[in-house]
Design a protein that fits this description.
Radius of gyration: 19 Å
Number of strands: 7
Number of helices: 10
Order of helices and strands: HEHHEHEHHEHEHEHEH
CATH class: Alpha Beta
Structural class: alpha/beta
């Protein structure tokens, strides 16, 4: 049975797609139509290659120790290597600041990219996020969005790369239920004619040492699923909705939750947080608005 930390340590917002982390720095970068959403410059690639080497030697072992990380389902990567090598969108729940590093470790030597909250790219860790494949989602209007989508399309259809998208819309640490998915991730996959690979993070109860010395809430398991393809017999809007539901159900199962027992519906519709174990987080609590 999957362990649920049921922690009240974090101020989960009222809206299920909202962020609660406070970004202390703003570099002032403008993510407009001229911004290189996928940077292919030689200087950037040199830095990226160096950082990715450090990831394998230093960061991956630290990530494994820090999270108590276990990875299951790698055989699905091998079995579907040919399909995934043509470009793929992966989706998962977002439960830890380091869970993207867990995904990066799981699919190594493949080098993924990830859609990132723009303030994070402008924040104190923005350079590291960019070098590990972070692509900011612009918030500055239609021309910027068009440039961003063009870069994403090329990444998947011409460069045949891997794109990780957190369809819940934000990170809630150690939150066990899988929150509703927005349809944007599946829209990108369908528009680029790429499969979607579901992954699910679940929790295990930490041992005595982790609890008492490190005060660790839970250890983490990442499970990798089977690729999901669209039902091309459906009209495009229905196809996006139906595939989003299938992906949400798959992530639930990979996270150790039967879809019918998950407390949230699969599709985001201005969804609100459900306080299923505590009343501490209510209107007026820090981060609730």
């Amino acid at each position: 049975m999957t362990f649920d930390p049921k922690t009240n340590r974090f101020p989960y917002p009222e809206d299920t797609d909202r962020h609660y982390l406070i970004v202390k720095k703003d570099k002032g970068i403008v993510f407009d139509a001229e911004y290189p959403y996928v940077d292919r410059s030689k200087a950037f690639l040199r830095k990226q290659n160096l950082l990715r080497a450090l990831l394998r030697v230093i960061v991956f072992p630290l990530c494994t120790i820090r999270l108590g990380l276990k990875i299951e389902g790698r055989e699905n990567l091998k079995k579907n290597r040919e399909l995934l090598s043509g470009g793929v969108v992966s989706v998962s729940n977002h439960v830890h600041m380091w869970d993207y590093l867990a995904i990066t470790k799981a699919i190594c030597p493949v080098r993924p990219n990830v859609l990132s909250w723009a303030p994070d790219i402008n924040g104190e860790f923005g350079t590291l996020i960019r070098l590990t494949g972070g692509i900011p989602i612009p918030e500055t209007g239609i021309p910027a969005t068009k440039a961003y989508l063009k870069a994403i399309n090329k990444l998947l259809t011409e460069d045949h790369e891997w794109l990780q998208i957190y369809a819940e819309g934000s990170m809630w640490e150690y939150y066990a239920p899988v929150r509703p998915f927005k349809t944007g991730a599946i829209r990108i996959a369908i528009d680029c004619d790429k499969p979607v690979l579901p992954m699910g993070f679940s929790f295990r109860e930490p041992g005595r040492i982790r609890k008492t010395i490190f005060r660790q809430i839970a250890t983490i398991t990442l499970r990798i699923g089977e690729p999901i393809l669209p039902d091309r017999t459906l009209p495009i809007n229905e196809r996006r909705k139906e595939m989003t539901i299938r992906c949400h159900e798959a992530v639930c199962r990979l996270a150790g939750i039967e879809p019918g027992e998950n407390i949230y519906p699969p599709l985001y519709d201005q969804s609100k947080r459900i306080d299923y174990y505590t009343t501490e987080y209510g209107v007026g609590y820090k981060g609730s608005h």
